[in-house]
Structures are given as C-alpha cells and as structure tokens.
C-alpha cells in the first residue's frame, strides 16, 4: 500500500516541480504546503495533503475533489435511494 502512495506522490510531484526548477525540494514542498493552506511545521505535512493538493492544483476552485466525485449524485432522492440499496449500480 505504501508503495502505491509513494508512486502516486512522485508521479504527481515530478511534473509540477519541473515547472519551477529554481526551487529545491524543500522550498517546493513549503510552497505546496502554503498553497494548500497548511500552517503547521513542514514535518507534519501529510502525504494526503500533498496528493490532493497536487491533484487539484491548477484546477478550477469549483471542481470537485476526485475521491468524492465518484459518489456524487445531482438528485437528493436518487442519492437517498441508492444509499438505502433500493437503486443498485
């Protein structure tokens, strides 16, 4: 499981870091932390914050988070019936 997260983080981090080659890794991580609104010490920055921020970086602010988008239902009644198992996928 950890290998998957590491590979995902590296694949997301590499193209974004290449856009700013003048920054070293720690400077770039600090920039990502600031952009994501993280205010704690850099050592407390989690991989989840980095992964979601990198996925959403450069995307319209009204765009949904990828993990939530798959469960999104426009109609409340449909969402309720699906949650109760009345409607099957």
TrEMBL record:
Source superkingdom: Bacteria
Pfam family, one: DUF1040
InterPro entries for the chain: DUF1040, YihD_sf
Protein name: Protein yihD
The organism's taxonomic lineage, starting at the top: Bacteria, Pseudomonadati, Pseudomonadota, Gammaproteobacteria, Enterobacterales
């Amino acid at each position: 499981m950890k290998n998957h997260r590491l590979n995902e983080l590296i694949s997301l981090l590499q193209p974004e870091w290449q856009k700013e080659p003048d920054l070293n890794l720690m400077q770039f991580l600090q920039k990502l932390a600031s952009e994501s609104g993280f205010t704690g010490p850099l050592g407390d920055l989690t991989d989840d914050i980095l992964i979601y921020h990198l996925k959403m970086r450069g995307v319209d602010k009204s765009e949904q988070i990828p993990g939530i988008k798959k469960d999104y239902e426009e109609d409340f009644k449909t969402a309720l019936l699906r949650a109760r198992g009345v409607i099957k996928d």
